[in-house]
Amino acid sequence: MGLWKNRIGVTLDAYLRQTRDILYETSLPSQVGNLAGPTRNIAAVDNKGIELTLQYRNNVRDFNYNIWGNVSYNQNEVTDVNGEQIISGATIRKAGYPLNSFYVLQSDGLFQNQEEIDKHATQPGNPRPGFIRFKDINNDGIINGDDRVIVNASGALPKYNFAFGLNLDWKGFSLTSAFQGVAGIKVYPRANLAVPSTTGPTPPGNGPATPGRQRTRTPACPC
């Protein structure tokens, strides 16, 4: 849609994209051994969302300029995986959730003292005060893979994409710039992102947790 003698342009699009027969490796019963199943066309994924684009263009004598920007919102959902759930490391593909949702233990803060550790469910890694405390989801007294939960956010596709730019032109000389970014995507922390004090510098004013310093966002080093 053009406004003000087409100097202002506005475009709003809505979409629904359905992808079917995606190739995925199927599961085999554990009784046959640690073998991968055949690759079959079993998965289906829906992407739906909206995209807004704005543009303003004008000129002052020989000087022409164009300012533009767009933002889009996308909702991704796995609709079918042949009744299966496909787990790969810290992610899962399961109907009803975004593609490659995280499938991880749920944090419940940091252990404050030894008494708290003794009362908590058995947790691997010989936890000490300052270590991350995980929730015992199934209440069996043991923290393991059965306590993982699905985080309703994709590790593969962002919810938001945005971009903006500027185009300038004067007597045959031009300058073009463009910037883009994403938001609404989760990243699984590893190495320094998970425990920055292990091999990298300590964040200013926020050192790792110790028995004498529990109010921190950085867990103790599991080393």
Describe what you observe in this structure:
The protein has 223 residues and is mostly beta strands. It has 1 helix and 12 strands; from the N terminus they run E-E-E-E-E-E-E-E-H-E-E-E-E. The protein has a 6-stranded antiparallel sheet with strand order 1-2-3-4-11-12, with no helix packed on it. A hairpin with a 7-residue loop joins strand 6 (91-93) and strand 7. It is elongated, with a radius of gyration of 25 Å. The termini are far apart. The model is unreliable at 196-205 (pLDDT under 50).
Structural class: mainly beta
Most strands sheet: 6 strands, antiparallel
| Gap from first CA to last CA | 60 Å
What is the β-strand count? 12
Based on CA atoms alone, the radius of gyration comes out at: 25 Å
The whole-number mean of residue pLDDT values reads 82
Query: How helical, in percent, are the residues?
Result: under 10%
Q: List the strand order in the largest sheet.
A: 1-2-3-4-11-12
Order of helices and strands: EEEEEEEEHEEEE
- Into which percentage range does the β-strand content fall? over 45%
Low-confidence stretches: 196-205
Shape: elongated
How many H/I helical runs? Answer: 1
Summarize the structure.
The chain is mainly β and 223 residues long. Helices cover 3% and strands 48% of the residues.
Describe how the helices and strands are arranged:
Layout: E1 2-3, E2 8-25, E3 39-60, E4 63-81, E5 86-88, E6 91-93, E7 101-104, E8 107-110, H1 114-119, E9 132-134, E10 149-154, E11 160-170, E12 173-183
Antiparallel strand pairs: 1-2, 2-3, 3-4, 4-11, 5-6, 6-7, 7-10, 8-9, 11-12
